[in-house]
Design a protein that fits this description.
By secondary structure, this protein is an alpha/beta fold. It has two domains: about 160 residues, P-loop containing nucleotide triphosphate hydrolases (Rossmann fold, 3-Layer(aba) Sandwich), CATH 3.40.50.300; about 70 residues, no CATH class. The chain is about 35% helix and about 25% strand. It is globular. About 40% of the residues are buried.
Length: about 240
């Protein structure tokens, strides 16, 4: 088991966001976390990263309790995130953004890691001197994923990877996520597009007002009409 949340309860001030949440991601798995707005999806990722500290419960990673670890230690230990809306440094080049992803590495495998990213995203090699802020939305998403992969993560967290993309780019983006997963990286993906997420995932969890209300193999959740009607609307 690579990641495990055990009975995690999280608050923002006096407002409870997560209540007794438990989930796990095994090595090599692609797991999606689904739910509507304000269901607690992004807070779950922030809790895993250490940006938000739980009031109760544990966050375990590769058998170690990292509940009280600072965020940089978690990143160095094998976590990385592709944040919502990508959050690139727009006035820096594609290459410079990718270099930032490797800042906690010792540099000994930088060239190999960069080659790997370029193999997954050939467009980034073509655009390496271009300012990241001038790229298309799809290309910026490639940079965000490439930057995360430069840290050589064992678990990649993805926050709403389809947000803001056209339908055609959504299809392309999920193909890329699948390719990254098939390269051996475990992924926990927060997503509102339930059908697309479940079409490439191994398992899924559904959040409603901070609690897990449904879980199962992705193939079973895909056909779960109550899931769409009660928790995901038209997603």
């Amino acid at each position: 088991m690579l990641l495990q949340l055990e009975g995690v309860t999280t608050y923002y001030g006096q407002i409870r966001i997560l209540e007794g949440m438990s989930l796990q991601v095994d090595a090599g798995e692609l797991v999606c976390l689904l739910g509507g707005n304000a269901s607690g999806k992004s807070t779950t990722l922030k809790t895993i990263l250490g940006i938000v500290k739980p009031r109760a419960g544990k966050v375990m990673f590769d058998g170690e309790d990292m509940t009280r670890w600072p965020t940089p230690r978690r990143i160095a230990h094998g976590l990385a995130i592709v944040p919502e809306n990508r959050r690139l440094f727009g006035q820096m080049t594609v290459r410079e953004n990718l270099e930032l992803g490797a800042v906690l590495q010792d540099g000994s495998t930088f060239d190999q890691d960069l080659d790997r990213v370029h193999a997954l995203f050939p467009r980034l090699k073509e655009r390496e001197k271009q300012l990241a802020g001038t790229l298309s939305g799809g290309e910026q998403q490639m940079v965000a994923m490439g930057r995360a992969l430069m840290s050589k993560p064992r678990l990649l967290l993805m926050d709403e990877p389809s947000m803001g993309l056209s339908p055609a780019l959504v299809q392309q983006n999920f193909r890329i996520v699948k390719d990254v997963h098939e390269s051996g990286v475990a992924i926990l993906m927060v997503e509102q597009n339930a059908n697309m997420a479940l079409s490439i995932a191994d398992r899924g969890y559904v959040l409603s007002t901070g609690e897990i209300v449904l879980t199962g193999p992705a193939s079973e959740l895909l056909g779960h009409e109550e899931l769409k009607r009660a928790y995901l609307g038209s997603a």
